[in-house]
Amino acid sequence: MTHWFHRNPLKATAPVSFNYYGVVTSPAASKICSDLRSSRARLLELFTDLSCNPEMMKNAADSYFSLLQGYAQQDAVFELISMGFNVALWYTKYASRLAGKENITEDEAKEVHRSLKVAAGIFKHLKESHIPKLITPAEKGRDLEARLIEAYVIQCQAEAQEVTIARAIELKHAPGLIAALAYETANFYQKADHTLSSLEPAYSAKWRKYLHLKMCFYTAYAYCYHGQTLLASDKCGEAIRSLQEAEKFYAKAEALCKEYGETKGPGPTVKPSGHLFFRKLGNLVKNTLEKCQRENGFIYFQKVPTEAPQLELKANYGLVEPVPYEFPPMSAHWTPETLAAFDLTKRPKDDSAKSKPEEVVKPVKEPDIKPQKDTGCSIS
């Protein structure tokens, strides 16, 4: 297993019947209601279908969303946002499953990378173009609230950059580039964690542990590869100090891994410190530091600074941007004649006045994904 990602549950959704008895006045309008029911059911089914791929998801989502666009009512806006949110979450979960496969291929790694960028684009589009249209603001600290959506966008970018870093290491790119990418990725995780800092711990504590440990983990990566760059420039004393800082941040990440596993909240209960992606960095830091200390003892005899080097690293390429997303246009089935066939004047007058019992919205039952065997393979 090359990567490990934290995932929150899908958003629970109440059944939507699309029954407009007495309001629908033509067969074409009735057909749209029927298609809405079936396309929504299909989308819900695919959210938990392990055989679903991005093409299947896109086709199913476009089919439902294009039909849903014909309604201008507030509950339809909320439905569009809620289901769009789950589509974005599905892309993150698909990427996580694929990244956790044994012997992941280069094409699969590219698909992980693209899926995370697509998810970021959907989250960004919802936050900027649709959530502001809600008359009733999103509940603070839950699902569709702006801070959470922003955290999802940033997390997706950070995780996609993890794939970029793995590729750069595999292709033996310059340590300076790898250090810069790792530093930018750590900053993404820190920004996402800060975005969630004002939320209720009951909802965000476990998620924040993940973001914090990944921030420490990639800061350790940055110092490790920066140390290699310094050594190549004959700055062995500074290299040792950089590796010592890498060791410190790795130890912090290791402690946070334990805390993550013990923290209650949404998300899987796993032991990230046991994953290969984590253990490999520990060995790399240890071996590189020992090499620097040996060379300093035999060749350089340089003083090791008391202060850690400042990481002012900027990656020139490899940084991830969300894939721009737009909901599909309204279905061609919504003709002027079909729209006119929804006669809202025929809706029962006392319909809105009736007090309906509040429906219990059950969580989506998601498949339990067991981690596959750790082989030591990396993305290539």
UniProtKB/TrEMBL annotation:
Belongs to the BROX family. The lineage of its organism: Eukaryota, Metazoa, Chordata, Craniata, Vertebrata. This is BRO1 domain-containing protein BROX. Residues 70-380 form the BRO1 domain. It comes from Camelus dromedarius (Dromedary). Residues 345-380 are annotated as: Disordered. Residues 345-373 have a biased composition (Basic and acidic residues). It holds the Pfam family BRO1.
